[in-house]
Design goal:
The complex is a heterodimer of chains A (475) and B (199). Chain A has 16 helices and 19 strands. With 475 residues, chain A is of the alpha/beta class. In chain A, helix 2 crosses helix 5, helix 6 runs parallel beside helix 8 and helix 13 packs across helix 15. Chain A is globular, with a radius of gyration of 22 Å. Chain B has 199 residues and is an alpha/beta fold. Chain B has a seven-stranded mixed sheet with strand order 4-3-2-1-5-6-7. The N and C termini of chain B lie far apart (45 Å). The chains are: A alpha/beta (475), B alpha/beta (199). At the A-B interface, helix 2, helix 3, helix 5, helix 10 and helix 11 of A face helix 4, helix 6, helix 7 and helix 8 of B. The complex binds iron/sulfur cluster. Iron/sulfur cluster binds next to helix 4 and helix 12 of chain A. Chain B: This is 3-isopropylmalate dehydratase small subunit. Chain B: Heterodimer of LeuC and LeuD. Chain B: It catalyses: (2R,3S)-3-isopropylmalate = (2S)-2-isopropylmalate. Chain B: Pathway: Amino-acid biosynthesis; L-leucine biosynthesis; L-leucine from 3-methyl-2-oxobutanoate: step 2/4. Chain B: GO terms for molecular function: 3-isopropylmalate dehydratase activity.
């Protein structure tokens, strides 16, 4: 094997993020920001058409088609596999297919077993591995950081830049640690944890930082749980979220289609084992959380930082010292149609959405199915289950989870982003209220005038059964 | 990309903070495959309300948006920048921006300037009392000027140069093609490739 760039680094203690960063620097110094090499570039139909167009206009090619892969997800229908009713959605998907064909990029189209939400597909194929740089024109690319990679969302101009050069100029970020000590109590999930973190930091608290999540509670999370945590890093403004790889990570990657094999596997693991923050490495900032203090957490407002314990009540604007937070809260309560002081558990919902790149993986479906098994979705509630990928769907069917949901009266769909962003017909109608396992409760995110409460899969399932925000313990 | 050195124009005072990119342009407008023509999507939901700022006759000519903190957080959609530009905005001033939005704006010739809350408040008041008055955003001097008031702002040297020269990032990077090739020849053999594999 050729000597690798990371072997030549000095002995100064470094953070995990620094190590991965250093191993990808193509050019540094001078007035320009570091130029980083990109190991994996994921594409989808919404943020790529203008980038391909840019290449065409400049007469450029895709530099590394072997490090690029596309899937259809944001616009795809979930009620059938082949008819995209909306002509503009169809056009966008057709454009992606034509671009991939023209530029020689591998694509997983509707109907293909590897079609699905881009951040579910990467790990599923074994393309997401420790110590990589991963980008995608989608802010939840941070999901892939769960493997110990630097992964972040980019804009369409940057998509074009990566297609053309396989690199990206990036200003050096700062480094932060979120240390979660102790174990999560029974019934508290990765989603509850990250919603709590965001409620502490606010939506801008992580700005300019690559965050490393660590500590016992993080180590105890499954890979799916780690992905949920890293996924929502962007919701508190962080550039990326990372978790040091360990045995769980290797086990998850091993045997997948694109995982290294044989001697290459050994070489890879040897490198991956070096991917941890050195003793004595300094973070620019650290947040410490006691896992034992956590309980199921949900949002009440219109940004992911506006959250509260499920056992709590809707806050009043006066509860906030900061004048900006106060006005934002007042606006959020009005939009959400909520009265301060209402117990969260008394909030009735119309829709429950289980899915997205935050909580649409197999483990999430299992958790929800376990809660809902033998029970019924409450009268007047529409529960929609949208697996994160075609493969997750297939696996769920193999495990009989589809039956559990269907028997309970839920709507069992095909894979895609769906109601996470309401680009396809899966949308809330004005005034409708949803408990959603997705990541954004912005005004209108899930449909014009729709009201969103972000919740974990377990809370989503219990809410579907009772018709109001609830946890499995309430059943 | 258009060069940006200095711009003088009227202000639209948007008294809102945490304006995420879903508010700037809702997802339903993202389905186009072109890079222009997004002006109708800008703040689309708010614009349905006739009392909304941009529906007021006195702000029809505004070219500088002054808004509250955390502007452009959320989704990475570059369409948010295109929509602001297509609508006619040349610059946005806020105490703080979402990272991806900020990066996108500077790549598209839309100047985003960070000024402290107090300055933003003052600019809001001015624009509310005298909508016709103009302010200047000067990237060369790194200053915002309004009447007899001047605020300096910080701006990364490299980004400033790139913006003032109107330089295309890809061309800039390709000047270091040899370094990219050298890096590639040294990459670990086990790094994954997307080429189809036999399972
Ligand atoms: S599921 Fe939602 S957050 Fe994830 S990629 Fe799709 S739209 Fe983005």
């Amino acid at each position: 094997m050729s000597p690798t760039p990371h072997e030549s680094e000095g002995t100064e203690p470094r953070t995990l993020a620094q190590k991965v960063w250093d191993a990808h620097v193509v050019r540094t110094g001078g007035q320009q920001p570091d130029l980083l090499y990109i190991d994996l570039h994921l594409l989808h139909e919404v943020t790529s058409p203008q980038a391909f167009d840019g290449l065409r206009v400049a007469g450029r090619k895709v530099r590394r088609t072997d490090l690029t892969i596309a899937t259809e997800d944001h616009n795809t229908p979930t009620d059938n596999l082949f008819t995209i009713a909306d002509p503009t959605s169809r056009k966008q998907i057709e454009t992606l297919r034509a671009n991939c064909e023209e530029f020689g990029v591998r694509i997983h189209s509707l109907g293909d077993e590897n079609q699905g939400v881009v951040h579910v597909v990467g790990p599923q194929l074994g393309l997401t591995q420790p110590g990589m740089t991963v980008v995608c024109g989608d802010s939840h690319t941070s999901t892939h950081g769960a493997f110990g990679s630097i992964a972040f969302g980019i804009g369409t101009s940057e998509v074009e830049h990566v297609l053309a050069t396989q690199t990206l100029p990036q200003a050096k970020p700062k480094f932060m640690a979120v240390t979660v000590n102790g174990s999560l109590p029974e019934g508290v999930s990765a989603k509850d944890l990250i919603l709590k973190v965001i409620s502490i930091t606010g939506t801008g608290g992580g700005k300019g930082h690559i965050v490393e999540y660590r500590g016992q509670a993080i180590e105890e999370l499954s890979m799916e749980g780690r992905m949920t945590v890293c996924n929502m890093s962007i919701e508190w403004g962080a550039k990326a979220g990372m978790i040091a790889p360990d045995e769980k990570t290797y086990d998850y990657v091993k045997g997948r289609a694109h995982a290294p094999k044989g001697e290459e596997w050994d070489a890879a693991v040897e490198y991956w084992q070096t991917l941890k923050t050195d003793e004595g490495a300094v973070f620019d900032k650290e947040i410490v959380i006691d896992a034992a203090s956590l309980s199921p957490f949900v949002t009440w407002g219109t940004n992911p930082g506006q959250g509260v314990e499920l056992s709590g009540t809707v806050p009043a604007p006066e509860d906030f010292d900061d004048p900006i937070a106060r006005t934002t809260a007042a606006g959020a309560l009005e939009y959400m149609g909520l009265e301060a002081g209402t117990p969260m558990r008394e909030i009735d919902v119309d829709v429950v959405f289980l899915g997205s790149c935050t909580n649409g993986r197999i483990e999430d479906l299992r958790t929800a199915a376990e809660v809902i098994k033998g029970r019924k979705v409450a009268e007047g509630v529409n529960m929609m289950v949208v697996p994160g990928s075609a493969k997750v769907r297939e696996q769920a069917i193999a495990e009989g989870l589809d039956k559990v949901f269907i028997d309970a009266g839920a709507d069992w769909r095909f894979a895609g982003c769906s109601m996470c962003l309401g680009m396809n017909p899966d949308q809330l109608t004005p005034g409708q209220r949803a408990a959603s396992t997705s990541n954004r409760n912005f005004e209108g995110r899930q449909g014009k005038g729709g009201r969103t409460h972000l919740v974990s899969p377990a809370v989503a399932a219990a809410t579907a059964v009772t018709g109001h925000l609830a946890s499995p313990a309430d059943l | 990309m258009d060069k940006f050195t200095t711009h003088t124009g009227q202000v639209a005072p948007l008294r809102r903070s945490n304006v995420d990119t879903d508010q700037i342009i809702p997802a339903v407008y993202l389905k186009r495959v072109t890079k222009t023509g997004f002006e109708d999507g800008l703040f689309a939901e708010w614009r349905e309300d006739e009392k909304f700022l941009l529906n007021q006759p006195e702000y029809q000519n505004a070219t500088i948006l002054v808004t509250g903190t955390e502007f452009g957080t959320g989704s990475s959609r570059e369409h948010a920048v295109w929509a602001l530009k297509d609508y006619g905005f040349k610059a946005v001033i806020a105490p703080r921006f979402g990272d991806i939005f900020r990066g996108n704006s500077l790549k598209n010739g839309l100047l985003t300037v960070e000024l402290p809350e107090a300055a933003v408040e003052e600019l809001w008041l001015r624009a509310e009392l005298h909508p016709e008055s103009e302010i200047t955003v000067d990237l060369e001097a790194c200053e915002v000027r309004a009447g007899d008031r001047t605020w300096g702002f910080e701006f990364d040297e490299f980004l400033r140069w790139r913006m003032m020269e109107g330089l295309d990032d890809v061309a800039l990077t390709l000047r270091d093609e040899d370094k990219i090739a050298a890096f590639e020849s040294n990459r670990d053999a086990w790094r994954p490739r997307t080429l189809p594999v036999q399972v």
